[in-house]
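Below is a filled-in request sheet from our internal design queue. Each sheet records the structural input a requester submitted and the sequence that came back. We keep these sheets so that new team members can see what a complete request looks like end to end.

REQUESTER: design group, bay 2
PRIORITY: normal
MODE: inverse folding
CHAIN LENGTH: 119
BACKBONE (tokenized):
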């Protein structure tokens, strides 16, 4: 089973094509992060993209004004491999693309959490 939304191209195109427009604020941060080429490349990644309700407008402005902070946020949510929900164990730790930052994935009773966020 693949997590949703279903991919329609590269990671950036998948976020942009979300019918519910749940990733607009994250996309604004991505634009300011300097990692667009990573998200539009052909390498395989899993992106745990925060939805709009995870950001206030002030948060987005803070990231727009600080490229290093925006870059860190995007890379912290990016794992350099494909992760399938069916293959998840109860507890896994994966390295993110942000140096020295890890992503902790929990699976219990069919529910998945990444760090403290429900997926």
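RETURNED SEQUENCE:
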């Amino acid at each position: 089973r693949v997590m949703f939304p279903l991919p329609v191209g590269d990671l950036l195109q998948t976020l942009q094509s979300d019918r519910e427009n749940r990733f607009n604020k994250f996309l604004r941060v991505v634009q300011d992060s300097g990692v667009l080429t990573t998200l539009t490349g052909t390498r395989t990644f899993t992106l745990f993209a925060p939805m709009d309700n995870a950001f206030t407008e002030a948060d987005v402005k803070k990231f727009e004004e600080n490229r290093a902070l925006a870059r860190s946020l995007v890379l912290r949510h990016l794992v350099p491999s494909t992760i399938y929900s069916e293959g998840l164990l109860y507890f896994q730790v994966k390295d993110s693309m942000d140096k020295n930052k890890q992503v902790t994935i929990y699976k219990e009773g069919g529910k998945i959490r990444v760090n403290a966020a429900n997926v």
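SHEET NOTES:
- The domain at 11-85 is CATH 2.30.180.10 (FAS1 domain).
- The chain has a mean pLDDT of 90.
FILED BY: M.R.
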